[in-house]
From TrEMBL:
Keywords: ATP-binding, Isoprene biosynthesis, Kinase, Nucleotide-binding, Transferase. This is 4-diphosphocytidyl-2-C-methyl-D-erythritol kinase. SUPFAM superfamilies: GHMP Kinase, C-terminal domain, Ribosomal protein S5 domain 2-like. GO terms for molecular function: 4-(cytidine 5'-diphospho)-2-C-methyl-D-erythritol kinase activity. Its EC number is 2.7.1.148. Belongs to the GHMP kinase family. IspE subfamily. The gene is ispE. Pathway: Isoprenoid biosynthesis; isopentenyl diphosphate biosynthesis via DXP pathway; isopentenyl diphosphate from 1-deoxy-D-xylulose 5-phosphate: step 3/6.
Amino acid sequence: MKPVTVRVPAKVNVQLAVGAARPDGFHDLANVFLAVGLYDEVTVERAPALALTCTGPGDDPLPEVPLDRTNLAARAATELGRRHGIEPDVRIHIAKDIPVAGGMAGGSADAAAALVACDALWGTHASRDELLDICAELGSDVPFSLVGGAALGTGRGEKLVPLDVGGQFWWVFALADGGLSTPAVYREFDRLSPHAPAPAASPALLDALRTGDVHTLAATVTNDLQPAALSLFPALKDTLAAGTAAGALAALVSGSGPTTAFLAADAASAENVADALRASGTCRAVRVAAGPVPGATVV
Ligand SMILES: C[C@](O)(CO)[C@H](O)COP(=O)(O)OP(=O)(O)OC[C@H]1O[C@@H](n2ccc(N)nc2=O)[C@H](O)[C@@H]1O
Ligand SMILES: Nc1ncnc2c1ncn2[C@@H]1O[C@H](COP(=O)(O)OP(=O)(O)OP(=O)(O)O)[C@@H](O)[C@H]1O
């Protein structure tokens, strides 16, 4: 049986509207996801027992990523196997390019990729609905990593409606030194915004996506978690200012951070903003990527 490799993109939240904490501890969202061309690759092959390896860019080891059964990719394989009476005896290798704990849904991406890869390896032919159901069990961002493109996520972000997008948008991502814990950022949000109103998607933003109008998109992107992320990681303000000074049309924290995202007018201005951010000394690394791109796909 040949190994199966699945490529899966990162996401940026072009709108992240957050409501008050629910009794189950999650927050209702109006979460407008866009999949962007920064990818992890997950390879699965049959093995005597479940085993996991992970390398980062340049084949470097990534000590922050757990290699036990708590890894979201291992949990995805285990859950698909459980539902189909299959022991998850697979070796999973994650080639990681999505920043870890960066607010770009890296772990979620690996979970969606492992699910699609094991489904192909085992020939389980799970329906799209079953895969989405497993994704939602694994985490709020995981269903979007499966479908990719652009989508509005409601509930805790797991209920998706696909969105039409009328073009490609160019982004620059500034990677920060260190990560932010998603639950900690939501807790800080609760502290800063104890009476948050019910979240709603912005009609102007959805229209900008539909028409591919980058200037209107830049004027309408928002992230309700940004004040919380900046409160926990104040140095990100300098990165946002550096990208804005370099000509980015919009600058915002990506999801729960600490990656910051800069919308550029086109590919050439994205490269200019990227060069300026690299020179600014306000971030660890800089990447350029466009979206939308498809979700988890067998290569
Ligand atoms: C910040 C985002 O990345 C934006 O897309 C997501 O909302 C986070 O999605 P995720 O990492 O898949 O989150 P999950 O693994 O489902 O939940 C992790 C923790 O984040 C918080 N959480 C997550 C999603 C949500 N709608 N409300 C929350 O309060 C909860 O404390 C939860 O225990
Ligand atoms: N496959 C995985 N890749 C990375 N981290 C993982 C993985 N599985 C579990 N984790 C754990 O999850 C934590 C969050 O990592 P992840 O890269 O998913 O964060 P994130 O991109 O900020 O998530 P999100 O944007 O969905 O909130 C890590 O610190 C790590 O302990």
